[in-house]
């Protein structure tokens, strides 16, 4: 399935595995890339820039196809050494960087000079246009349905994707709520050039999280997420477990970040993923979990999504042109 995104990224299928904290490691990213999509390693999952370079080397041993690294730049009291991670991403030799969380402008000179393709993830048409203006090569537009940070605009993909198609000149992938071939077909019809998926890839064999997390995703429906940090204007979509609900309650009752800091600590989330204690902390998951019913390999997800999208598009075309005739027969 060839689109402007497959051409730009040098991949076979218009399917990207979005960066995922604690999840985007070598095995998962390599499996997605090897199947013809774009696998993305998450930079900040690695404790140091040198560890990141080693993680990319591990992925490289598993695939020679294009790979990406996600760098998420979020406000922090004690920020990681972002510039050093950027340098490590360049040195690692990956083809693509997925930037997220903030305007990538400060790093564009360095990245462009190094020949990396910059895929910037954002949640509004305004920010997509800004990213285009500062020179990114492509955009990933994340709708309200998504796992993680949907922004504060609350615009779901059904409107956000065509609105982005109307506004942008560069290629883009639709993100948030996509988990199967119907989603990819819809994204293409709405004007995107592919999809970015997080939740679907979180629930695959190569995803390095406990089987309990995967079983919970299969069990949960599209209704089982909550939005935390709304009053702080830093909204994040996480699983509707006891900790997520407690965070919502505390902040809704006027609490401040300091009151929930311990509940949302990254170390708790990591323990949850590693040990499968589903009430140990918060964990990102999207509404798309309602569309996830199994734990296939990541390569199988890529192949299945593409095959299903092709079939759905053919069937839709058939039913549009043949429908009235069938009705009158
Ligand atoms: C467990 C998990 C961790 C995530 N961590 C990050 C992250 O560190 N940086 C980032 O840009 N996006 C992160 N995301 C968001 C995904 O890259 C992607 O944009 C999102 O999952 C798309 O929505 P979907 O889950 O409906 O497919 C995360 C998503 C999940 C499920």
TrEMBL record:
Pfam families, alphabetized:
NMO
Transmembrane ranges?
A: none
The alphabetical list of record keywords is: Flavoprotein, FMN, Monooxygenase, Oxidoreductase
| Cited SUPFAM superfamilies | Inosine monophosphate dehydrogenase (IMPDH) (SSF51412)
**Any one Gene Ontology molecular-function term assigned to this protein's record:** nitronate monooxygenase activity
Determine the domain of life of the protein's source.
Bacteria
Q: Does the keyword Flavoprotein apply?
A: yes
Q: Does NAD count among this protein's keywords?
A: no
PANTHER family registered for this protein in UniProt:
2-NITROPROPANE DIOXYGENASE, 2-NITROPROPANE DIOXYGENASE-LIKE PROTEIN
Indicate what this protein is called per its UniProt record.
Answer: Nitronate monooxygenase
